[in-house]
Write a structure and sequence with these properties.
globular; 126 residues
Length: 126
């Protein structure tokens, strides 16, 4: 599915975003939508009925951009001059691959916005 739960106008004017350039936004928000659908078990049929959904999509789009498309601007964690060893700060766990980290990061964002809405509930509704 991968619905676009926000457009670039909403991202800039309502959400106040400035990180994702317009030419990359559709790709980022589309991937964010696929993750939202996964985390909500594809239950969002009427996006306007879920409070915070557009904001969630915008914040997730920023995370996607930062992790997949932005050039490496890493913060230095430690540095050694003699043997020239640099360690960068990262949110990734040691040994965690990029896709697993992206999923974990996006799940955290999604739960922040949508956990109280029932959209992420694992309870099967009959």
């Amino acid at each position: 599915r991968g619905l676009l739960y926000a457009d670039y106008r909403h991202y800039r004017e309502v959400f106040g975003g400035s990180i994702v350039p317009e030419d990359k936004f559709r790709r980022c928000v589309s991937l964010a939508g696929k993750y939202i659908d996964r985390f909500t078990f594809g239950r969002i049929n009427d996006p306007s009925s879920v409070d915070g959904l557009a904001g969630c999509a915008c914040e997730m789009a920023e995370a996607v951009y930062e992790l997949k498309y932005r050039d490496g601007e890493k913060a230095v964690k430690s540095e050694s001059t003699d043997g020239y060893s640099v360690t960068y700060l990262t949110e990734r766990k040691d040994g965690e691959d990029a896709d697993a980290f992206l999923g974990r990061k996006l799940y955290g964002i999604c739960s922040l916005y949508l956990m109280g809405t029932g959209a992420m509930s694992r309870v099967l509704r009959c």
